Amino acid sequence: MFKIGNIVARRSYSQDLFLKILDIKKVGREKVAILGGLDYRLLADAYLDDLVLKNNKEVVYYQLADSQEVYKKFSKVVFDRKFKVEEEYFEIPGKILHLDGDKEYLEQCRRTYQQLGLQAKGICKSEMEQPKAILKALRENPANILVLTGHDSLLKGKKNLRSLDSYRSSSYFVQSVIEARKFQPNKDELVIFAGGCQSNFEAIIEAGANFASSPKRMLIHALDPVFLVESIAFTPIDRTVSLKSIIGHTITGIDGVGGIETRGQLRRGYPRIELGS
Questions:
Q1: How far, in Å, CA of 17 to CA of 66, rounded?
Q2: 164: which DSSP letter?
Q3: Residue % of the chain over a pLDDT of 70
Q4: Cis peptide before 271 (omega within 30 of 0)
Q5: What is the mean pLDDT of the chain?
Q6: Rounded Cα gap, residues 183 and 197, in angstroms
Q7: CB-based contacts of 123: which residues, under 8 Å, 6+ apart?
Q8: 5 burial class (0-12, 13-18, 19+ CB within 10 angstroms)?
Q9: Which residues contact 225 (CB under 8 A, 6 or more apart)?
């Protein structure tokens, strides 16, 4: 009945999220589906008898509701920035390097970066590959802001929220941040966001990230990293970003994303010119 690519929901979670079947494996006598969120950075597994297949109409309505929520945040970001423009100056926002474990999420983020007027290089690397790939990526793609994300989750039955062993991918995000900090230790020269759904927030921050998920071990939206770093990229370098304001720009909010005081990455120039002319 089920096959890879099907959109499903889980009975045990009151069908709260729609997920895509990424793989189906046999565990003992049972078949287990590996699931990825359509719009939240969750990687999970479930027995097939826990799944409900969703039809095209249900999927369209689900994605429409999500699109409306994204549009609200997008509009707020653009509206807030509109009133910060100082007409006498030209602006050079921070450059972004984004490593993502999910190809489809990366493409969503790439399109949104473009719509927001940001320079962003996207590289698809699995969470496991990111620690080994990060130094080469940083050397080849100079950036002011680094995003390390993909899928994560708190493993079933695990109660020690501080232990990296309790998470599917948090240890890889921690390792990647440590490697990135070997390249650039200064938290204002290279601003780092790292994590996915339910990630070990404290461990990622302690490793050297400026921002991470997830303080309350909540699911985070695929575009949360984009809306967060947009605010950093467009905050002038002589100012510290308003933590409450930029986290308020995300879809998940403070339950899903947190961070430390950080300088913006926008450089202003004077007098105003049209760059590239």
A1: 11
A2: G
A3: 92
A4: yes
A5: 90
A6: 26
A7: 97, 98, 99, 100, 106, 133, 137, 141
A8: exposed
A9: 98, 109, 147, 149, 193
Rounded CA gap, 27 and 251, in Å?
A: 36
Q: Is 189 exposed, middle or buried (0-12, 13-18, 19+ CB in 10 A)?
A: exposed
Q: Which residues contact 62 (CB under 8 A, 6 or more apart)?
A: 18, 38, 54
How would you class 243 by CB atoms within 10 Å of its CB: exposed for 0-12, middle for 13-18, buried for 19 or more?
Answer: middle
Tens digits of residue pLDDT in 83-102: 455 667 788 999 999 999 99
How big is the chain, counted in residues? Answer: 277
pLDDT above 90 (res 226): yes
| Identity of the residue numbered 152 | D
Burial of 267: CB neighbours in 10 Å, binned 0-12, 13-18, 19+ = middle
Residue 15 neighbours by CB distance under 10 Å: 14
Question: What six digits make up the tokens of 229?
Answer: 């770093």
Per-residue model confidence (pLDDT) at position 39:
83
Reading the block at residue 259, the tokens are 């961070």
φ, ψ (nearest 5 deg) of residue 146: -120, 130
